[in-house]
Amino acid sequence: MQEMFSMYFESRGQISVIELYVEFEQSEVDRNIEEEEYDSDSEEEFESNYEAVAPEGEEDQGDGVVAPNVGDVANALANKDPFEEPSFMRVLDLEAMHAPEFPEYMSAEIPMVADGEFAIGMEFSSREAVMMAVKDYTIRRGVDYRVYESKPLTFYAKCTQYGSGCDWLIRVSMISRKYCWVIRRYNGSHTCTRATISQDHSKLDSNTIAEAIKPLVEADPSIKVKSVIAEVQSKFNYTISYRKAWLAKQKAMEKIFGGWEASYEALPIWFQAMCNKEPSAIVHFETMSAYQGDEEVTDIRVLHRVFWSYYPFIRAFRHCKPVVQVDGTHLYGKYKGCLLVAVSQDGNNNIVPIAFAIVEGETSDAWHFFLSNLRQHVVTRDGVGLISDRHESINAAIARSNGAWSPPRAFHMFCIRHIESNFLRKFMAPYLQKLVVNIGYSRTVREYEQRYQRLRERGEAYTNWLNQIPREQYALAYDGGYRWGHMTTNLVECINSVLKGARNLPITALVKATFYRLNELFTRKRAEAEMNEVFEVREMPAGTEYAVDLRQQRCDCGEFQVDRISCRHVFACCVNQLLDWRVYVHEVYKMDQVRRVYRARFRPLGNPTMWPVYSGPRFVPNPNMRRVTKGRPRMTRFLNEMDTRMLRAPRRCRQCGAEGHSRSRCRRSAGVGPSNPGQ
Question: Hey, where are the domains in the chain?
């Protein structure tokens, strides 16, 4: 077909129309080709992993749960080079999207040959480059070949129809004196045509695809499998199966970020190197014994939990608002788990992550582990506000903290968005959601009482449910000022979205992502940072009056005492009296404090060969956390009202007042009235 179209383009002046007739037929030659094991995608390897979904989206469930042997896991080899910075956490290089598919042989000096054909004397850098070049040539021309000789110094292949209408063959040998591979024999282009047209190609295996999509996976590890299929289709003009695309993505991730088991072994080595450069950093492991059969393996430990916080975080929190938001998010990959995060905010409204932990799940013990280390090593000052959702495990962990997270040392408060969701789940009254949220946002007692009374008029059951939650844990008017105006855990959600791609990575790559990404954040923010009177204010034209006490730093609007920053009424007083408004702004908002947040620097880890020798135990993943079922992972989180659009009240017509339609569809507006039998 390619030759036919080439001839047509050369002689379009004489040939005005071409016709093509295609007959689909399964020949015996093609049956033999399909039976050959060209593709290295092992079914056993595919099923041993943790997820697989057919193109139609149907899940392929396994016959049972297979318990992995810890001894086999313990024998996993460490990644050869696990210490490079994850490139997807750097600035995204758009040029990487258009990188050549096979850089191994593209980097070699290949002579310019017409029509992209090989030529005798063409040189390649390695045997792998030769094989990739032949594969690429075969895939792009829609032909196939068989390997007749593959030795350490020779590669010899022929067309599958050699001797039956096509004489294509290639022989490449290693030339020792040149330190390269050279084509010694080549018979020219293919003269065969395939009897069948297929959407896939036998040489387009998962290894070839993995090399082609490495730039995409490196830029975004959370890339969808459907996007991989689309990328392969655009590059090779073949539509591969979901299974092959999924395997290719896993192999690409392993080549870029290392294997899953090897990543667990590399984790303590990386943390030791980091702590050696920055001794003030905090790392705390909890491990379990590893068993091979009934015998305990002495030099291997199963990683259970790990808490870490970098010194710049610890130092930065001293100059941030005394408020901490905590939340957890699930990890995706070969092993289950949760990432727990604690964040704060500086005076310039910048988010400052202060601690992380990887645990088995959002259990009471896991939250106790995280909050205990957070209190002991990072949040050491008193009078701190802690904002979280109403998860029972967090409440239980705070109850076990022996007063470390209880008044007067700390004040635990709830996210108003989660309270709103709990309220809607309890009463299914979406028209009252906004009123419940407004009750929490009430800055003054008067506002609170007015809105609370409005809710009570709708039904005492609503206020009785709300009374079960102490009002100092959800209302600004009664929080004692420990919220600093923060009503939700949105700051943590922002960090979770930033680390969304990292949650698909092996554990060491995930930890390194927090290091390099936040190192970049601190560097950028540090560069940016280098910049008894009582009045009555009347707002016009409404004429509303507000009392402002600059000595007590209070205003009737509530913003002054809640946010610790001058409101519009305070600015009006300062302009009128020629006062310096900066005197009435809290220290945390001043640039001097903002500079101190990012004053500490991350120390580079240096060359891995110069790190001290690690002598501790090897880490392996917990086999009980292994995903062993096939198919798309099932969602374990229950969807609630927070995952859907805000429900609306029933639609009411402004023309007739009835429910169920709008004015534009009202029958009255259309001129339809009661029937008149006299007409």
Answer: 122-186
